[in-house]
Amino acid sequence: MTDHGPQTIHFRSHALAWQDALPLGNGLSSLLLLGGIAQERLILGHGGCWLPREERRPMVCSLADELPAIRSLLRGSQPQEAERAWLLRCKAAGIRYVGTDSCHPAAGVRIALSDPGEALGYRRWLDPRAGLAGASWHEADGQTWERQAWVDREQDLVVWRQTAPRPLVLKVTLDDVGADRESTWIASTYPGIDASGWAGHTVPIRDLVRIESWYEGDTAWLSGTYKHGPGGWLVALRVPGATWVDGTAVTPARLNHDLVAVVAADPTTPPTVDSVRDRLHRQINPAAQARAHAGWFDRCRLHLVNPDEDRDTPVEDLLARASDGAVPARLWQHLWAMGRTTFIASTSPDGQYPPHLQGIWSGGWRVPWFGCYTNDENVQMMHWQAVSGNLAPLLRPLRRLIAASRPAWRTNAQALFGCRGVLAPLQQGGTNAEHQQAEWQGWTGGAGWLARHVWDAWLMDRDDALLRDELLPLLREVLEFYEDFLEHGTDGRRHALPSVSVENHPVGWPSRWTIDATMEISIVREVARHAIAAATAAGESVPESWPRLLATLPEYRINADGELAEWIHAEHHDEHQHRHLSHIYPLFPGDEFAPGETALREATARAVAARARLGLRSQTSWSWVHLANIHARLGNGREAQRCLERVVRTCLQNNLLTASDDWRGQGLTMGGGERERSVMQLDALYGAANAMQECLIQSEADHLWLLPALPPAWNHGEARGLGTRCAVVVDLTWNGTDATATITAIRAGTLQLLLGSGRATQDLRLEPGQVHQVRWELDRAHRIDPAAEAAGQSVSGIST
Fold first, then answer.
1. Distance CA 635, CA 641 (A)
2. With contact defined as beta carbons under 8 Å apart, do 152 and 26 qualify?
3. Contact 394, 350 (CB under 8 A)
4. Under 8 Å CB-to-CB from 485, ≥6 apart: which residues?
5. 680 to 20, 324, 565, 660: CA distances (angstroms)
6. Torsion region of 36: left, alpha or beta (phi above 0 gives left; psi -120 to 50 gives alpha)
7. Do 244 and 145 meet the contact criterion of CB atoms below 8 Å apart?
């Protein structure tokens, strides 16, 4: 059979459900490839497919006058009464929790092969570097069948190609993926008010969309418009040489077949037929697609396995070996490559929408959590890898979403709390950013957390227009909100109440509505520091109120067990039986607890250990990945590896996409063993790629840390093109005893270089284009030699 490339990932079987399909995309259009032999199934999608479930109307009521009473109840240790009073006001105002717009599929394609033979040696495959996928098999006489699919980054086409050893007839149909029989959720009231709960009731999809199909020669068309919104989507499927009769295209008998589809979608304006028709006849070339996708993939390269080791071993076999013992090196390599290629496939510098919880893919109309943007963890984790993965341009759709959301965020801030500035909701869709979920309106950290990604983009590019027109105005509006919202305490400090440490609550405190969650104070502190730095860099004066606010924020609290407390308020006691790690924000993903902050980092390490030890079965795939990133930031490669191993053994599906929970039933997450409940959710996959990078390189504007947390399993390897926040690109190699780094400056700058455990440092002054090389002996704690580990840590033999 065809050699599909040295990084190709192989699978033994085809998918039975869309969650197990292979995902392809170009950041705009998407394809799910199930890979059936005689009956192929494709699901087409687009990042602009967002379904409004009710007529647009105000989702946020004016509640600012309620705030003093709410704060009084919280100070009086009556959080349930405070939250209930708030929810009742929302209900009295007629505000219903409808939920965000929901992503949805554009169309489905079924392809029947007339005579695929008796398939032997079937393999489904995906080349992460090229952005190509397909299936191969052979017959007893050695005749081979080859299938290939891709979503063209240059032509914006979806292509499916079948090559047969003898003339083959295809029967092709285009469908609406069950829109005529599926339904979606509409919640009617708020949880806590009555028994209707989260889901509320459902509504048939046919009551929310209008779908039409028609046929022209060799092309089938499907268009959809929304009942409660101005937009829609359009799909054109061309089957060259065929004629559509009664909804089916039958091709002539041929050795080679190409199906070409165009998908267009816009939630604000329906696409036109003329805008799609010409694209159907563009030239298709898998080599051109491979070059375009590889142009992104190769910006950073990681190699953890010998080239021929387990090269053709199917993923199912590698997963079986991982469940029996050590994770194979090839599986580590595949995990990183899959996280990287799917991120690249689900975003584009030209895209309007960033990847959501399911990336850019959806195989049905009732998508878990509406496939929305969850601003208290998940959307951020989806984008962490962009920095060290050297993919800063792929942050642009997220930046566009933030910019487009700011008008609604201003409404949230003014209506709910009478404040200037911006207030992001916990969840939002592609087109609606109202803070409509009353039970979460006490959480205010979303806009500040999202602003960190804009900060990262600026640190990597140092673009003056980004700084002046995007970053600084955003930081200014976030600070305006907190200047108005934070209460002046009698202790001279500014306090956050209500405050939420998502999605947890203190022991003995029967509400998530609290006082001074560590995470929210940390976000305010970070935004203030970044705003001051950004204004200074832009040559603008710094308002006196910014450093004053920074100086009056409450100090972090260390609890009686020596742990960083999740709430600064002394009456709140830590609840470790929870999946979120919000209070660790100052360490990761924040930048406040830098390597020199020894005492605070030690307290954070104790808090992390308690959460992992006591909250074992309260985790999810993404929380184990979050823990892996945190351990990497703490310099603990062994524990980072252990967290990722748990994800591999419990939450990694056979197609290398992550499920939300432990679908294999090993008891290491919430809801373990319920396959129908554990849904495909890609934040953990994308976050795992970052955790692996975080073990190799960490950076901020003024420092660079190389191999801070090398896992014991990665005895040797190399990484090329690692991105940083400090204006350099790094190549790394290591072999179990020594490491070498080549540091290339993009711009002039000064930085502190830390190696290994961080006890060996250098100060570097680099000019643009300057190359600096450094070699050092790996910390003995990073070696796999047990005797070397027992000898303790040391760093020596540094040469430049």
1. 12
2. yes
3. no
4. 413, 417, 419, 444, 496
5. 8, 24, 32, 6
6. beta
7. no
According to the model, what pLDDT value does residue 798 have? 43
Per-residue pLDDT tens over the stretch 55-110? 766 678 788 999 999 999 999 999 999 988 988 888 787 776 666 788 999 999 99
Query: Distance between CA 76 and CA 32 in Å, rounded?
Result: 53
Spell out the residues 6+ positions from residue 92 whose beta carbon is closer than 8 angstroms to its own.
Answer: none
According to DSSP, the β-strands at 373-374 and 183-186 are: unpaired
Q: Which of the 8 DSSP states describes residue 467?
A: I
Q: Which two tokens stand for residue 553?
A: 């924020």
Contact 664, 729 (CB under 8 A): no
Pair 348, 28: CB distance under 8 Å: yes
Q: For position 34, what pLDDT does the model report?
A: 98
Predicted local distance difference test score (pLDDT) of residue 760: 77
CA-wise closest residue to 482 among 440, 453, 516: 516
For 205, the token pair is: 């999809």
pTM: 0.95
Most confident range, picked from 102-106, 621-625, 717-721: 717-721
Question: Which residues on adjacent β-strands are paired with residue 684?
Answer: none
> What are the beta bridge partners of residue 203?
184
Calpha distance 522→358 (Å, rounded) = 29
Q: Terminus-to-terminus CA distance in the chain, angstroms?
A: 48
Angstrom distance (rounded) from CA 327 to CA 338: 16
Q: What's the CA gap between 45 and 338, in Å, rounded?
A: 20
- Residue 740 is inside which H or E element, if any? strand 738-745
- 666 Cβ contact partners less than 8 Å away, ≥ 6 residues apart: 649, 650, 672
For 244, list phi and psi in degrees, rounded to 5: -85, 125
pLDDT of residue 667: 77
Residue 654 and residue 647 in contact, taking contact as beta carbons nearer than 8 Å: no
Cα(305)–Cα(310) distance, rounded to whole angstroms?
9
Can you tell me the distance from the alpha carbon of 641 to that of 784, in angstroms, rounded to the nearest whole number? 13
Q: Which domains does the chain have, with CATH numbers?
A: 9-53+101-298 (2.70.98.50), 700-790 (2.60.40.1180)
Of the candidates 355, 428, 352, the one whose C-alpha atom is nearest the C-alpha of residue 385 is 355
Q: What is the structure's pLDDT at 676?
A: 53
Which residue, chain included where needed, has tokens 């028609």? Answer: 214
